[in-house]
Amino acid sequence: MTESRDTADRHTPVMLARCLELLAPALEVPGAVLVDSTLGMGGHTEAVLRAFPRVRVVGLDRDPQALELAGRRLAPFGDRFTGVHAVYDDIADVVHTRLGLGSVQAVLMDLGVSSLQLDEVERGFSYAQDAPLDMRMDPTTGPTAADVVNTYDERELVRILREYGEERYAQRIARNIVAFRERVPMTRTGELVQILRASIPAATRKTGGHPGKRTFQALRIEVNRELESLERALPASIEVLAVGGRIVVEAYQSLEDRLVKRAFARGATSSAPVDLPVEPETHKPYLRLVTRGAEEAGAAELESNPRSQSVRLRAAERLRPTPVHMRRREP
Ligand SMILES: C[S@@+](CC[C@H](N)C(=O)[O-])C[C@H]1O[C@@H](n2cnc3c(N)ncnc32)[C@H](O)[C@@H]1O
Prior knowledge:
With about 325 residues, the chain is of the alpha/beta class. The protein has 2 domains: about 5-115 and about 225-325, Rossmann fold (3-Layer(aba) Sandwich); about 140-225, Putative methyltransferase TM0872, insert domain (DNA polymerase, domain 1). It is built from 15 helices and 7 strands. The protein has helices spanning about 5-10, 15-25, 45-50, 65-75, 90-100, 115-120, 145-150, 155-165, 170-185, 190-200, 200-205, 215-225, 225-240, 255-270, 300-305, and strands at about 35, 55-60, 80-85, 105-110, 240-250, 285-290, 310-320. A 7-stranded mixed sheet has the order 3-2-1-4-5-7-6, with helices on both faces.
């Protein structure tokens, strides 16, 4: 098997056919450019490049390893593909400054971690094997999960575990983490899993899945600032879209899906005061929802690709420029 096929096998793109169908009206425009904001192993991008032979794709990822693997997989497409090491909240800078484009026709966001990141034991995303407590999607920068568990105060740890992991035993886990680190800093995922086993009552452990599931999710979200990043990225991604352009977002947990739903609803609702007799042009909705609510994967995919189980897909189309009073403020 070639290395590129090997890369393809490491991550099966979720709801691929539906993504292509939803993006198609935007990608059929001559000279269309898609920003795949979460390039990963390049599965969605490869399918777009094959299905739309005139489209160019700019693939962003914060993970240099993903960019390298996807870059090699997509090399046969030559200059129709450009990989960029960036966080997706920087999409405006990438499109306008680095690529010199005024707007793009489509944006795709397939959120979360890739199977590659979960499978690479040494990156510390998985609770199934002992590894350094890292969890950074971009290992070249920023605090690790070890930094979080060793330096955050107990109250902050409780908040993160509750908010990002919906962990019922957050208080007990945080207390036990603090007691552990008073003796020696925590450096391994295995040490954390032991604490979780000791903190979660045996009866809950029998029914609630792996004791690491919720805490590992919470730490990953905190380490990578996933919600802050997404909250900034959504309006920025909508603003780089040309009129008629489309955005498709696949979210895998409710906190993310809520942010997507809110950002789309904001654009799809008139901002005119209710008592105005005529809706001014500047207050008309600038988005049209293309999906009704969030779509889920179909039965066949649910069976063949476990990653698709929690997906919630939403799509929207740009109707007009974002009115000035609704634009995001430049950072
Ligand atoms: C679910 S995977 C994408 C898989 C891809 N669609 C495919 O078919 O191979 C998500 C990717 O997004 C990247 N990512 C997550 N958050 C990011 C962010 N804020 N900025 C840029 N990339 C991010 C991750 O590093 C990961 O490689």
